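Example record for the data management plan.
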Amino acid sequence: MNKYQYKVQGVDYDVEIVDVEGNIAKVSVNGIPFEVELKEPIKASHMPKRPTVKPAAPAAAAPVAAAPKAEKPAAAAGTGTKIKAPLPGTITEMKVKVGDTVKNGDTVVVLEAMKMQNNIEAECDGTVTSVLVNPGDTVMEGDTLITIG
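Corresponding structural encoding:
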């Protein structure tokens, strides 16, 4: 994984190249995942190295803290109803976190656009399965903010 920091018109961006396959690059910009189509495939010598997967160590070798038990199983992150930014702006407040139960119409994110605070609401009942933005992040219209499963 290659990580880069950019400043565009005074705004800082953290860019991480996660994977490149052919002419499709999976990147993360300020923690938001994107698939980017390249005009030409990157030559193998310029591609980021993929991490190697090593088998897990036996349980006795390294103690692992037990994760808290969820009341009900959550859907896989990224599956479900995607709540998207209706216009470009800056995230000022997150009203939910992964695992929270929401109802249709609940405010889940506050987005500042054109000096106005906009409440972004859940479009369905369910459980938050992923949160893709943080306060201070700049988003574009159509960017996925959270997923409700």
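Summary line stored alongside the record: The two ends are 29 Å apart (CA to CA).
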